[in-house]
Amino acid sequence: MINAIYLVGEPIISNRLFKACVTLVYFLQVCPLSNTGIVSPQDKSKSAFFLLSPHTPAKSSDKRSTMQEKPFDMYDHSQGRYKDYQSPVTATPHYFHLNSDSEELLKYFEAPMEFGTKNFTLVTAQIGSTAHIPCQIHHIGECVVSWIRRKDYHLLTVGLTTYSSDDRYSATHLQNSEDWSLQIKFVQDRDAGLYECQVSTHPPTSLFMELKVVEPKAEIVGPSVKYLTPDSTLKLICRIVHATEAAAFIFWYHNNRMINYDLHRGINVSTEADFLFSELTINQATNKHSGNYTCVPSYSHPASVVVHIFNGDNPAAMHHENRNSTEAHHTICKWILHFEAIILFVIFRTNVRVSVTYNLL
């Protein structure tokens, strides 16, 4: 966008109208327009006209520059012919300040180094996944970023070079970005702890990040033992907890047999797209559907339930009987332990008396 055109040097010409015409012709035919000004293509020097744009910074100079004299023809009415004129044009440099955009650019490069990530930020990763510990740095300049494991002060990376013998560690950085992340593949429990992102300023500046390692596990909603009658509907819901990313799969097993695709046996398995929730449904369950059911997600602890399908009208009574038998078993075990303790005490007292009598003799 053309903001203004300044006439720097003014030829000494008496005919103002002719001067304006010459100026217009010179402007349209000789000097090309550009974002940085109008430049004469013949001698590659600045002409008498400058296209001053607010987006074009310029250097200040104390010297005055005089352009080369250029002859041109002008019609002389008194003599009825064209005459040659030598018109020296003197150019005076203009002084102007940097625009706001340029000032912001200078401030950016002159600003001191600072971290864009908060100190002691908590990063959570699950076992077996890839952890990315961020470290955003503004105005890093020529400094170098290093990652240090704080629990043993082990140097992991310097720049993009890995110094650890454990090849699971690496530094990631995209060109012209401000992110210097530490990547840890196949995360394990022992990877948890503090990590230091250090910048080679004078003195060095550090940022501390904490990695928390979690182990996801499966949970089947409801009690661990279920009682059903024949022809009823068996529905088991499995969900994944403490997961930081989606599972690769969720498999259902019935007595160690994978049943995700046993539609012909009346078994239907539906799983959400993020593999954090799965539902197993069996319509009109029979005795053959009794047994152990296990939900097995990838990189997670499995969960199991036991299903009993029996020909009875009161499954609660069966559960009550099982509970009573269990309580009776616990009571018997307690009595046996008490009896054994009494016997051991009697034997110990007897041995002590025999020992004392022997010493007296």
UniProtKB/TrEMBL annotation:
PROSITE patterns xref list: IG_LIKE
Superkingdom classification of source: Eukaryota
Biological process, per Gene Ontology: synapse organization
Family annotation (SUPFAM superfamilies): Immunoglobulin
Pfam families reported in the protein's UniProt record: Ig_3, V-set
Domain Ig-like: 112-214, 216-306
Gene Ontology cellular component list: neuron projection membrane
PANTHER family listed in its UniProt record: DEFECTIVE PROBOSCIS EXTENSION RESPONSE 13, ISOFORM B (PTHR23279:SF37), DEFECTIVE PROBOSCIS EXTENSION RESPONSE DPR -RELATED (PTHR23279)
The protein's name in its UniProt record: Ig-like domain-containing protein
Classification lineage: Eukaryota, Metazoa, Ecdysozoa, Arthropoda, Hexapoda
